[in-house]
Amino acid sequence: MTSRRERLLEKIRQTGTGPKRSLGQNFLISDHVIDRILENAFDFGDSVFWSKAEKPLGMIEVGPGLGALTEGLLEGVKQRGLRFQVIELDRQFAENWRDAGVQVVEADALQADWQGLKLSQGTRLISNLPYQISSSLVIDRSVWPCGLGSMILMFQKEVAKRITAKEKSDDYGLLSVIAQLGWDVEIVCEAGPQDFYPPPRVASRVLRFRRRADAPAETEFAAFLKFAKKAYAHRRKLLASNLSTGGDSRARLESILESMGFSKTVRAEELSPWQLLELARKNGSLG
After folding, report:
1. Topology annotation, domain 4-211
2. Within a 10 A sphere around the Cβ of 144, how many other Cβ atoms?
3. What are the φ and ψ backbone dihedral angles of 190, each rounded to 5 degrees?
4. At the top level of CATH, which class does the domain 218-282 belong to?
5. Fewer beta carbons within 10 angstroms: which end of the chain, N or C?
6. Residue 95 phi, psi dihedral angles, 5° rounding
7. What is the pLDDT along the chain (287 residues), one digit of tens a residue?
8. Which regions of the chain carry the CATH code 3.40.50.150?
9. Where does the chain hold its CATH 1.10.8.100 domain(s)?
10. pTM of the model
């Protein structure tokens, strides 16, 4: 029996659909990594899917490509009666999946109208993400989940480390803060260059995201994103310097920081995501 790796490489040879560097395509070909993602994709005993003792209603994949994950996802959603759709930027792949009867949104995942997708509440997002969009997509879907209840996503390992980093560490920053406010995040598995075609020059990691029940509401989260971007605008500057617009503003921020137990010389990376959110709320920065 041929492995997925052999079948995918044969499909590439037969169709001549090589990966496009301009779209950041590295096709996943590892049986082990694919199996781990699919196991997690259909593990529903952990999340908001079951908050009302209901089955999940939907699943969406970004960038199905040749279908390393898609074939297994299609089999699973058919067995469970779930709605399934994909977002695909590559026109040829989009046409192929549309011809196969899959609901396709032909768009860049960062430009797609996620609200217009009208995802069922609790939809799960699955993707071997193109590396160049991964950070932006996580931030967008953290602030505006648009019905997503969980995500299972492949990242460049360095980006994955930033997502899960804790305060005061070198990897901790804006991405860490926004991701951790929106989701509980855990590692699913590692992937090496040999697990892709063509092999990238970096290691990869799969993360699983579960939507936090206490995540800020979208309006507040959007305002907080602007606040956090200012806080991290200049990492070497003091937090109060980054956030203030003048004397009164800075004095107020320093007073709030001291009331929270921090020195007025604290930097943004010393505050946890929830402490930074508390600062924004106390400062009246969220409307």
Report:
1. Rossmann fold (3.40.50)
2. 16
3. -100, 155
4. mainly alpha
5. N
6. -65, -40
7. 667 677 777 877 776 666 666 656 788 989 999 999 999 999 876 544 444 444 557 999 999 988 999 999 999 999 988 999 999 998 989 999 999 999 999 999 999 999 999 898 889 999 998 888 999 999 999 999 999 999 999 999 999 999 999 999 999 999 999 999 999 999 999 999 999 988 889 999 999 999 999 999 999 999 999 999 999 999 889 999 999 976 678 999 999 999 999 999 999 999 999 999 999 999 999 98
8. 4-211
9. 218-282
10. 0.92
SS3 string of the chain? CCCHHHHHHHHHHHHCCCCCHHHCCCEECCHHHHHHHHHHHCCCCCCHHHCCCCCCCEEEEECCCCCCCHHHHHHHHHHHCCEEEEECCCHHHHHHHHHCCCEEECCCCCCCCCHHHCCCCCEEEEEECCHHHHHHHHHHHHHCCCCEEEEEEEEEHHHHHHHHCCCCCCCCCHHHHHHHHHEEEEEEEEECHHHEECCCCCCEEEEEEEECCCCCCHHHHHHHHHHHHHHCCCCCCCHHHHHCCCHHHHHHHHHHHHHCCCCCCCCHHHCCHHHHHHHHHHCCCCC
